C-alpha cells in the first residue's frame, strides 16, 4: 500500500482504526492538545494545530508501516512489534492495552515447564515469538498458526498447548488452561521509524509530542495536595510526602501555621492522607493535575 499524504514534512502517525487500543489512543492524542477529527470510518486526519497526520489502519499493519518508513510513528501493542521482528525505536510505553504473551497448557496436563513442550504441538497467532522463545531454550516444538480463538485449540485436539495474549486471565480459565510462563509483557507503545528518529527536523516535532505525552502521563500518576498544618508537624509531614521535590510551604495568617502544597503519587494516595492526618495536617484539599511538566 502506498500512502502519499503530503510532502510537506508533516509527521505521519499510524494508529489502530477500530479495536482495543483505539479509544485510549484517541483519548491520549486529544489530551495532549491535538485538534483533529476522529469520528466515523476515516482513513486519515490532519491535525489542525500540529504538523501531524494520523492514519487509521489495522493494528497488524502498523509494525511494517513504521519499519518501512511508510509512516514515521505508530502506536501499537509491543506484542506485534516483537512478533514482526521489525527494527523500530520504542519511544514510550503508554500504559494501556496491558497484556502478556503466555504459554498455557490444559489445567490437568502434566506439563510443568516450557521444556516439557519440546516435542509438543503448540497453537498460536504468534508463531515467530513462539519459535524464538523455544529456540532460545534449545527446543523446536511443532507450531500450528491459527488466527482467533486460539484458546479452544487444546479442547479441539488441535494442539497440546497454546501461546496467546492474556490480560484478565478469564479466557484461559474459561477454557481450562493454566499459564506456564510469560514470553513477553506488553502494552501499547509509541514507536518510530529509525530514520525519522534520526532526522533533526522530524526529531524536533517528535520530541514535542513526547514531552506532551510524558507530561500528561505523569500528571495522571500524581495528585496535587494542599493542606494546612502546624509548623511543629512539618517534619512528620515531609516524611509522609517527600513529593517530586520539596513541598511548597506558605505561611498562614495564623501564627504557628503553614499551608503545604505538594504532588503525591496516586498509588500511595489514601495511605498518605491517613498518615498526614495523624501527623497533624488539616483541611487537606486534593486536585488532579492536568499536565505535569517535569
Ligand atoms: O482489527 P485489528 O487487526 O486492528 O485488531 P485485532 O482484533 O487484531 O486486535 P485487538 O483490538 O483485539 O487487540 C489490539 C491489541 O490490544 C493487541 O495487539 C494487544 O497489544 C492488546 N491487548 C490487550 C489484547 C488483550 N489485552 C487481550 N486480552 N489483545 C487481545 N486480547 C485477547 C486475548 O488473546 C484473549 O483471547 O482477549 C482475550 C481475552 O483476554 P482475557 O485474558 O482478558 O480473558
Ligand atoms: Zn489485528
List keywords for this structure.
five-stranded mixed β-sheet; 9 helices; binds zinc ion; alpha/beta; six-stranded mixed β-sheet; disordered N terminus
Walk me through what this model shows:
- The chain is α/β, with parallel strands linked by helices and 294 residues long.
- It has helices at 22-31, 62-68, 78-84, 127-136, 170-174, 194-198, 200-221, 234-240, 269-279; strands spanning 11-16, 44-46, 52-57, 73-77, 89-93, 99-106, 121-124, 142-145, 161-166, 177-186, 188-192, 222-230, 248-251, 257-265, 282-288.
- The chain is globular and about 75 Å long.
- It starts with 10 loop residues before the first strand and ends in a 6-residue tail after the last strand.
- The model is unreliable at 1-6 (pLDDT under 50).
- Phosphoribosyl ATP binds next to helix 3, strand 9 and helix 5.
- Residues 16, 19-21, 58-60, 77, 79-80, 97, 99, 151, 164-171, 186 line the site of phosphoribosyl ATP.
Amino acid at each position: 500500500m502506498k500512502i502519499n499524504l503530503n510532502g510537506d514534512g508533516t509527521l505521519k502517525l499510524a494508529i489502530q482504526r477500530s479495536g482495543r487500543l483505539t479509544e485510549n489512543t484517541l483519548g491520549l492524542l486529544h489530551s495532549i492538545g491535538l485538534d483533529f477529527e476522529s469520528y466515523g470510518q476515516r482513513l486519515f486526519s490532519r491535525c489542525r494545530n500540529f504538523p501531524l497526520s494520523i492514519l487509521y489502519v489495522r493494528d497488524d499493519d502498523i509494525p511494517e508501516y513504521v519499519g518501512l518508513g511508510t509512516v514515521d510513528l505508530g502506536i501499537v501493542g509491543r506484542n506485534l512489534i516483537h512478533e514482526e521482528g521489525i527494527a523500530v525505536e520504542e519511544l514510550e510505553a503508554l500504559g494501556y492495552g496491558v497484556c502478556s504473551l503466555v504459554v498455557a497448557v490444559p489445567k490437568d496436563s502434566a506439563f510443568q515447564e516450557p521444556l516439557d513442550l519440546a516435542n509438543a504441538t503448540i497453537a498460536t497467532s504468534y508463531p515467530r515469538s513462539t519459535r524464538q522463545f523455544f529456540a532460545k531454550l534449545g527446543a523446536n516444538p511443532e507450531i500450528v498458526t491459527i488466527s482467533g480463538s486460539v484458546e479452544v485449540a487444546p479442547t479441539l485436539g488441535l494442539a497440546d498447548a497454546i501461546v496467546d495474549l492474556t490480560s484478565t486471565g478469564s479466557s484461559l480459565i474459561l477454557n481450562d488452561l493454566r499459564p506456564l510462563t510469560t514470553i513477553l509483557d506488553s502494552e501499547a507503545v509509541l514507536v518510530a521509524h529509525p530514520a525519522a528518529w534520526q532526522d533533526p527536523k522530524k526529531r524536533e516535532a517528535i520530541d514535542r509530542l513526547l514531552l506532551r505525552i510524558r507530561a500528561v502521563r505523569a500528571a495522571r500518576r500524581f495528585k496535587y495536595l494542599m493542606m494546612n498544618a502546624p509548623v511543629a508537624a512539618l517534619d512528620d509531614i515531609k516524611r509522609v510526602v517527600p513529593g517530586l521535590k520539596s513541598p511548597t510551604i506558605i505561611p498562614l495568617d495564623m501564627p504557628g501555621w503553614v499551608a503545604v502544597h505538594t504532588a503525591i503519587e496516586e498509588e500511595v494516595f489514601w495511605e498518605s492522607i491517613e498518615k498526614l492526618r495523624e501527623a497533624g495536617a488539616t483541611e487537606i484539599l486534593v486536585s488532579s493535575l492536568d499536565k505535569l511538566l517535569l
